[in-house]
Amino acid sequence: MLSNxxxxxxxxxxxxxxxxxxxVLLPIVMMTGLVLFYESMASDGSxxxxxxxxxxxxxxxxxxxxxxxxxxxxxxxxxxxATLSVGxxxxxxxxxxxxxxxxxxxxxxxxxxxxxxxxxxxxxLMSLVTNALENYKLSIVSERLKGEGISENLVHPFxxxxxxxxxxxxGVQLIALLIPMILALAIGxxxxxSASDLFAGEKEKKTMEALLMTPxxxxxxxFAKWMTIASIGAxxxxxxxxxxxxxxxxxTENLKAAVSFGENMYWILGAAxxxxxxxxxxxxxxxxxxxxxxxxxxxxxxxxxxVMMIAMFPAMxxxxxxxxxxxxxxxxxxxxxIFSILKELSFGVVNFPHLGIVIGSNxxxxxxxxxxxxxxxxxxxWVMN
Amino acid sequence: xxxxxxxxxxxxxxxVYITALKHVSFTIEKGEVLGLxxxxxxxxxxxxxxxxxxxxxxxxxxxxxxxxxxxxSEEVKKKIGVLxxxxxxxxxxxxxxxxxxYFAKLYGLSKHETKIRIDELAKMFGMKDYLNRKxxxxxxxxxxxxxxxxxxxxNPEIILFDEPTTGLDITSSNVFRQLVHQLKREGKTIxxxxxxxxxxxxxxxxxxxxxxxxLVHHGSLEDLYKEEGSRDLNYIFMSKLVRGNQQYAxxxx
Lengths: 385, 253
Fold this sequence. Notes:
Chain A is built from 17 helices and 4 strands. Chain A has helices at residues 2-14, 17-42, 60-67, 80-85, 99-104, 120-147, 171-205, 207-212, 218-251, 254-258, 265-293, 297-310, 313-319, 328-332, 336-346, 352-378, 380-383; strands at 50-55, 72-77, 91-95, 111-115. Chain A has a 4-stranded mixed β-sheet.
C-alpha cells in the first residue's frame, strides 16, 4: 500500500509544472548564476588590467615606477581625480611636484592615491600601486643605508615567512561555502511546493477527507507523503550537485583548480550524495509539520519560509571557521552540520566519526519531527479544515 | 444498520468550546434512505463526518453494521462511501481513470476488480469519453460524476452524501437522483444531507432534522406529514426549526 501511495504522490507531484520548474529548472539557473559569481570571486585578478589615472605631466622615470606591472595601464589626464570620477579609471594617483628628484635628494615627497574601497577592481588596483610604491620605497631606503655604510639588517632585523596550514587552493574556501549553500537552498526550494501540496493542499482541495475515509492506516499515508517530499528534495539536491559539478568542470578555471580530491574523490562524492539524502529526509519532516499547520497552500508556504531562511544562516556562521576549528557542536546541530561536513569534504577530508555524527544527528531530529508530524496527523484539528 | 447513541461533538476554538452536536441519538436501518435536514451550521456535516470516522465523538458512540467507529474504524471505512458537499476531492493532475484506480487500490481492490468496477461506473455515469482526461479541465458536473464514482468504487453498503447536488445543473442533479433510486433498489443504506426539500421528498424514506446541534425530529416522512398535518416539507421544516411556531413558518413559505 505504501508503494502505491508513494507512486501516486510522485506522479502527481511531477505532473505539477511548478514542482518541475522548482525542482529542475530553477536550481539549474540559480546554481549557474552562483557558480559564475563565485568563479569571479575566486579569480585573483592576475589576468586583469586596471586603469590608473595619472597627471599628464608625469616624467618617464615616474612612469617607470609602474612600467614593470602588466596589470596597470596608465591613463594620462590633466585632472586624474576627475578621470576617476567619470569612471575612465579605477584609481588615480597624484605625485608631488618633481616627485622622483625630491625623493632622490632626500627631501619630503608625497603620493596621494585615490580609489574606491567598495569596488573590487579599484581595491585590487590600489593594492597593486601600493605594492609598487612600497618596493620603490624599500629600494630607496636600501640605497641610502648603503650610502651611509649601514647594514640593511638595522631596519630589517628579521624575515616573516607565512605558511598555510593546508596546501589547498584559495578557491576551495569558496567551494566549501558554495556547495552547502546551494544544497540547502536547492533541497528546500525543491521539496517546499510538494510539502505544501501534500498536506495543506489536500486539505484545501478536500482530497484529504477522501483519503482519510479509505481504510489505509494514517501512519502509512503520512509515511508515503513524507517519503515523497524527501525524494523530491533529494532528487533536487542531487540534480543540483551534478549540474554544479558539470559547470565547475566545464565552465570555470579557478573553482575547477580548487577541486582536486585525489584518492578520496569517490568517498567524498558518495558522502555528499548520502548527506544530501539524509538532509532531504530531515527537511521533509520539518516541511511536513509546516504544511500540516497550514489550512491552505499559501498559509503553509508562509510557515515554511522561516525554515528555508534558517537554512541559510549557517553559511554566514561557518564562513569564518577553519576546518581544524570545528567542534562536536558544529557537526551535531542540524542544518549547521551540513555546512560543517561539506566544508570538511570540500577540503578533501573524510572523517568518518564526523560523518557519523552528522548522519546520526539528522536522523535523530528527523525522527523527532516525524513523531510531531504523526501526532498532528492523528488529530482532527490538523487534518481537516 | 447505523446506530448513533448520545453523540456529542465539541470543538475548541482557542479557549472557547463550540458544541456542534448535542446528545444526538437515532438508528438507520439497512436499505433505508435518510434525509438529513437543517440550516447551515446545524451539525449535519459534523454528524456525517462522525459516522464516517473522520471525527471522534466527544461523547457517545456510533456503530456501523455492528462495528464501533472508534474501535473498528478500518472495518467501518470499508463499508462506507462518502461524498462531501460542494467539494469533489479529486486530484486535478490525474485523469478520471487514475483517480478511480488510486482509490480502488486504497480500498484494496484487485486490478481485475478495479477494471470491471471502473467500466461499470463509467457506463452508469456516461463518463467513457472523458475517463482518460485530466480532471483539472472538467466541468463541475463532470467532476461531480467522477467524485460519485470514486465514492462508489468499492461498492460500499452505506453511502453518505453531504449536499451532493449543490451547484449542479438540472441534468446532473437528475442523474444523481436516478443514482439514489438505483442504489436504493440495490439495498444500499443512504444518508444524504440537503437543503432541497423536493429532493428529500422524492428520495427519502425517513428524515432527521437538526437544529443547532440537536436532533429535533427523526422518523418516516409519512409519519411526519401526519404529525404536522401537511405534506409541505418546506413548511414543516420551518415550523420545526422555530419550534412549533406555525404562524412564523407560514410567513416564509
